[in-house]
């Protein structure tokens, strides 16, 4: 990239993409954030500042939908038009219809989840720790199994099916990566996985259509205005989205949160003394080290960003992680400071695509970090920095090994 | 400024917010807050919505305040005069309160029904205060046969919506072609009016109430309309706009009249010659000023965020008068909730001559309309689309060409620029009329 | 506790509703309503709600004594 595009921004961006910088990309984000907008090449732009990203996430001239014409052979969506993909990658109005239907079923079920999530966290920890000193990989033991368990509980998936969901969660996640970062082989593989996913779900969907229960899948199938009801393809894709959008993201939240707490023992102590601090800690983790580092869109019209015209049809990357450290918006941006006032971070995006699972993710993060703080005595990082997974967009450590002296119940 | 005494007249949103900001700006002197309502400051917008509908009690609206405000509150006390030369506020009970700095935040009141006898009938209501809302709600829960709302502005429309929530039959009369047309223009107002009608509201456009009749006990029983109809009604709400509370400023030398108190964009009060009056500031519904972004007459912006923005700005400028005077550049913005619609507005639609639908559909579901004047984007109104407003705010702020290109997936296939449908007022009345009608009439 | 939401800034993300459904609720699809003076039992949930608001539209204040003004 550096050789074909001599822009300094491209160099800085290249360093961001470079895996060897994965453990700490923030100096490179800061370098990029010296300018509000960068043109990477003819049709690609980066936006780095909080105010601009905030406004652009809420701008109808930025589309999340693939601009290519739809595949004429695609199955039809419930709006009678060729199906384009999960609602994350759809624009209004069909996005809004699908999202509203999902929310209608999601909201009442999330409200009661907190005690259940706390119990799941306690249970997972119990399975991996004794009472004496030892070591735990927070990613494998807690962060990884928690979101799948939670989403299965929400969807009403029987416990024996959970391992299957788990395995799909890992494989389907590539669908969230920009298509251009996938190899031919990966694209083919993904298509196969997606087909398998639908085939796997079909009997479950048909069974609930025939005998609706009180679970979310039954609700999506049978509740609400029949005119806007999802068809089977949309339902399978939406369920897949709920599974994967909340998977690695939440893993990263718990892992990044553990790292931040153990690197800031004063905060750890305060959280231990006051579990009510958990809400603020989680918001600050989301700002300081966001699980989703950037968001892509394309322009439907010429737009002005910080005085710069970005033409219609171009691709814009909104660097959420850079905006979260914008000194114009956050005092002492590089400080991990849960009590900071007005923490309007960008970790969950904003506008019509604002994370649908944010409330759930918050509960999971609060429960997990509170448990780590309150149950492990003298916790410390065994390897710092830990190894990172290759993914740049959904950035997070592969493992976070924590040593401790004792465990309280 | 040196710590002396700052007096805030008007103990509501603007008054409380400015008092808090004075402390936040480091003011350590004496703070006196004077208000003629007996209640401590509360939030007004829910009065016509959740309170009338019975979802929130009128006692559950108190505004938060920091513990350290450390102010002397004179509640139930009315200011009746101001002397700028001796720097004194006179109260109705004869007391005189001296000040070094003054904040005028006396807001506005509901415009009364012009016939005092008819206005005194039991069942005839205004809506501006907690007490008004409690009285009106007391009548609404008696299940009146029909409720008459006089005036289809924001307050009138919200009252109609709340009555609809309560399952009551409602008639709304309005002078204009459609509800809220003075603020939104005829095109958008008509779209919203159709939705109100779909909820069963009996909307009477270009219709006025010619008389309210009562029975021998002085209870409202009937209303006569200019369209010849006679309605049997037990409750009528007069929602014909507001009048700024400026009487106490007569003879003060400040430029104050039935349209508000003049101030500049730094909230500094102006005298009748247009000169700044040192140490006297104005904020909220009572303030009339020229917004620097728009080529429009001075007007009052009778919206919640204007009160907050001006209060904070006035407090800052009062304290930093000599060193750091700031000007209000925030674009006007307001919301209204009614009939299942969340309506949001940014900019100044009423200066527009044209309007264009940019997203959604007037007929059903969410929509956004953009307003333009002389080829420049000046405002936007969104129904049930709060998450795209920032994009439109940017268009207004950058004075984007009108009609702006949006090309969203939910944009109409072809761009149809329409006459926005604002009934233009005659020039000599322009400033006053804009002030009265542009707000929450 | 006392609560005030800037409903101009609010974009109806509903995060406050998730965190404290007894204090915040929606009327219709996008219209937020709330109790300005929630009871003390809701304090924790209300604080979580204020933290979670993506646009930081929620202001909290302590449960202070009602003002007893001098009558004029
Ligand atoms: C029913 C209703 C619904 C509303 N809904 C919305 C909405 O949805 N969106 C929106 O943006 N805005 C809305 N508003 C407007 C918003 O409430 C006002 O803009 C805001 O209250 C202005 O605050 P203020 O402090 O300037 O004036 P006010 O709230 O009017 O306060 C002025 C105070 O000063 C007192 N006072 C007056 N004269 C004197 C005197 N001589 N001496 C002592 N005290 C005096 C008054 O009694 C009053 O308490 C609504 C208003 C009403 C009435
Ligand atoms: C810490 C954890 C999480 C983070 C950081 C996160 C982040 C995000 C972000 C940034 C977006 C916006 C994407 C865009 O604008 O293009 C998003 C959307 C989404 N998220 Fe999350 N997410 C998390 C957890 C979850 C969970 C637990 C779920 C579901 C159970 C979930 C479901 C979704 C869905 C369905 C969308 C698409 C919404 C739409 O397009 O309208 N997320 N998330
Ligand atoms: S969380 Fe904030 S933006 Fe969302 S509904 Fe509540 S107040 Fe509004």
TrEMBL record, chain A:
UniProt KW keywords: Heme, Iron, Metal-binding, Monooxygenase, Oxidoreductase
InterPro entries in UniProt: Cyt_P450, Cyt_P450_B, Cyt_P450_CS, Cyt_P450_sf
Record-level Gene Ontology MF annotations: heme binding; iron ion binding; monooxygenase activity; oxidoreductase activity, acting on paired donors, with incorporation or reduction of molecular oxygen
Pfam family, one: p450
Region Disordered: start-end pairs: 62-82
PANTHER family named among the record's database cross-references: CYTOCHROME P450 YJIB-RELATED, P450, PUTATIVE (EUROFUNG)-RELATED
Family assignment from sequence similarity: Belongs to the cytochrome P450 family.
Protein's UniProt name: Cytochrome P450
TrEMBL record, chain B:
Every Reductase C-terminal domain range: 334-408
Organism taxonomic ancestry: Bacteria, Bacillati, Actinomycetota, Actinomycetes, Pseudonocardiales
Cofactor requirements of the protein: FAD
Parts forming coiled coils: none
PANTHER family for the chain: APOPTOSIS-INDUCING FACTOR 1, RIESKE DOMAIN-CONTAINING PROTEIN-RELATED
FAD/NAD(P)-binding domain residues: 5-311
InterPro entries with a match to the protein in the record: FAD-oxidoreductase/Apoptosis, FAD/NAD-bd_sf, FAD/NAD-binding_dom, FAD/NAD-linked_Rdtase_dimer_sf, Reductase_C
Protein's UniProt keywords contain Ligase: no
Name of the protein this chain belongs to: NADPH-dependent 2,4-dienoyl-CoA reductase/sulfur reductase-like enzyme
Organism: Kutzneria buriramensis
Superkingdom field: Bacteria
From TrEMBL, chain C:
Signal peptide: none
Record SUPFAM superfamilies: 4Fe-4S ferredoxins
Cofactor(s) this protein requires: [3Fe-4S] cluster
Keyword Mitochondrion: no
Any GO molecular function: 3 iron, 4 sulfur cluster binding
Keyword terms of this UniProt record: 3Fe-4S, Electron transport, Iron, Iron-sulfur, Metal-binding, Transport
Protein name, entry field: Ferredoxin
